Amino acid sequence: MFWLLFLLMACAAAFLSCARLCLAAAHAAHSEPAGGGAHELTLYEAAFLSGGPLRVADLTLVSMARSRRLLLAHTGWATVVDPVGGDDIERSVIGAIGPDGQSRIGAVRRATAAADAVRALADRLVAAGLAVPDGARGGVAAAVRQVRAAALAVVVLAGVSLTMPGGEPDDGVLVAAWFALPLVLTLSCLAIARFEVHPYTRWASPTGQRLIGALPKGVRDGVGEAALLTAVAVHGVRAVSDPALREAFGTAQRGH
């Protein structure tokens, strides 16, 4: 009857993890302020809501490279051409490159993403109810991982219980039936979380996601400089058609 102890452990893991996920989701939903529906997104805001601080850094690098104020080499190095930034985030990029005027693109991306200007942008979006607070997003993601771990633990404990010696042949069906209960609980919780909780694991809140989706398709996928930068903000560097820029970012992401 040792399997009963394993069953209790499985039930406890399933219940506690699912309860934590429910509480994290409720906290995330409660932390989203009302309003924000009439907000018109800037490129930086669309970039942050679509991909977080690194997306903002990528957008700024692409914008400065397209305007010939920054040179992004295929070797993965960024070189300052014009040391005067047009806004706080551009000045953060120049500051991240350093006084020598040249630095690795990967290092510049990370430093820009952690800059005060990007954090201030994030704070404004959170206050407007368009971005998910770091604590809420991290709490929900951690809770989802815990439920997945609990589901795996249930399967492992069930397998151990079924392979224990000394049981009757009919006991296997009984053991499997009892362990199916916590397994169904965890899997059901994950299935519900896929639709109800998943928005809170992204950078944008449901309101922010609606604003991104409301961007005119011609602006996101059209031609011209504004359309290109909007596509980069929403879809990332993969939206860039320039092979030299794509290679520069590809080299940076590979860490060469």
Automatic annotation (TrEMBL):
Transmembrane segment boundaries: 147-167, 173-193
Keywords: Membrane, Signal, Transmembrane, Transmembrane helix
Record bears the keyword Iron: no
Domain of life the protein comes from: Bacteria
Position of the signal peptide: 1-19
NCBIfam families: near_uncomplex
Full protein name: TIGR04222 domain-containing membrane protein
Organism of origin: Streptomyces aureus
